[in-house]
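Why this split exists: single-chain examples teach little about how molecules sit against one another. For that reason, every record in the complexes split bundles all components of an assembly together and asks for one structure covering all of them. Below is a record exactly as it appears in the raw files.
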Amino acid sequence: MWQQYLHQIQQGNIKALARCISLVENEVSGYEALLQSLPDSGKPVIGITGPPGAGKSTLTDALIGTLVNENKKVGILCIDPSSPFNLGALLGDRIRMSDWYNHPNVFIRSLATRGSLGGLHPKIIEISDLLKAAPFDYIIIETVGVGQSEIEIAGLADTTVVVVVPEAGDEVQTMKAGLMEIADIFVVNKADRPGADLFVQNLRLMLAPAFHKKDIPIPVIKTIALQKKGIRELYDGIIAHINHHRFNEKRSWLLAEKTYFLIQQKRMMDINKDEIKNKIEAAGRDFNLYRFIQSY
Amino acid sequence: MWQQYLHQIQQGNIKALARCISLVENEVSGYEALLQSLPDSGKPVIGITGPPGAGKSTLTDALIGTLVNENKKVGILCIDPSSPFNLGALLGDRIRMSDWYNHPNVFIRSLATRGSLGGLHPKIIEISDLLKAAPFDYIIIETVGVGQSEIEIAGLADTTVVVVVPEAGDEVQTMKAGLMEIADIFVVNKADRPGADLFVQNLRLMLAPAFHKKDIPIPVIKTIALQKKGIRELYDGIIAHINHHRFNEKRSWLLAEKTYFLIQQKRMMDINKDEIKNKIEAAGRDFNLYRFIQSY
């Protein structure tokens, strides 16, 4: 049965793909067999992240346009934090991408983080591997950078695009250190805002040490996503990164990171919280936390 | 040797306490024995958290003043995110607390998170248990609420105080859902700002469902920490929470959470990342992520 699903996915059957994503999401019995049957397709994964309000969805929307014009097929995963308090804002974002929902060369799937706090999605690695088995040319994962997620996307995407907006002149100093470390490409969106050029200049200065540490400079690309400006440059930057040998070095690092993460996750699931609670209650006042852990 | 340290800590020897914190932080050989020798002192831990800029440090500073006036001894742990990009701002905060650094009834220790992203501090549970062994009446843990840390402090503190500032009228809607869930006491600081009363009113409305779910309402206390206003009410609120039976219910839940967390941590450390990397390299193109995990 799983072999049949895999065959359908490889043929580009979108319904089979959507179905399999749900089966993996819900851990329907036997889903591991499907995952184990996936071939290593080598399809590149492009991660798009950055702080809320940077215009990631608009930029992704525009990038899909360029890819479709180039006759490429593209699969997109959007990760939504599931807090009820910002649902409105997120839906607003999504509506902008709706042009592509019915395009034959575009597949979009939204995944809610469902309480995996600060993380991406409990099955994001598995689901992106499913997408890689389908006949897409590129996979895009778009995520709101909150807490850890911008760090985690670096362990998932072959090419990580960090999207920021120009702030008053020198405020690039306050940018989160994590974003600096994970970017393969920086995008300064809304580049028609005042102070954008100074911001880009400061950003390039800050990225200078990376130029020496890494073997290629980190490009800083100016875009105005709403006007589709700078998108071609972004596309070219992504292709250049994919064709560079650093891409392959990052790949083997990524594989180790993913394996490590999934082993962690498996070990966590092996811990029985109810059993722990029962043991604590049984021990009563005699319970000693540190002796208990030593013996566990 | 560890028994002697424990004895000194119990006698109120601050140098021994500071030394033992460093030994635990650096996992100096045998530190587990010290932890296992700690008695269950039942000392209450007060957690103070909230978004950056809410005035947590100023509030903690004022609260220490009230405790000291009541002739109480108090141990404080401050958790600083260690990003070099906001060190300046954090140091500014710390300076305000410096009045207490040399007071005989006050012990303050700052802990950097050192890259444990979104978390509190890798050894925060152990260090707070060390403090509980010393003759303090109360332990305060103050943490900048970024990412997961405000959630994690709820698994550490017997009484969690969430500090917020009044925003324009209805913006309480945008408050992070996590803060709602973890608060035992809400503090609206900078309550002299315009719109504070409306904000407090809205906050109480939002907390209303919790009133029905839980058996006591969540107090919302107005403070102006810089002017030391409302601090007595906060102190009384904390004492009321500690004396309520819900406090003890939370305690057993906390113990299970801590145990679970430390077991997770131990299991993670058992995973050998280098070994994984070597196996991946040895397998080369034949490496299958999902088969590997199944077998691990």
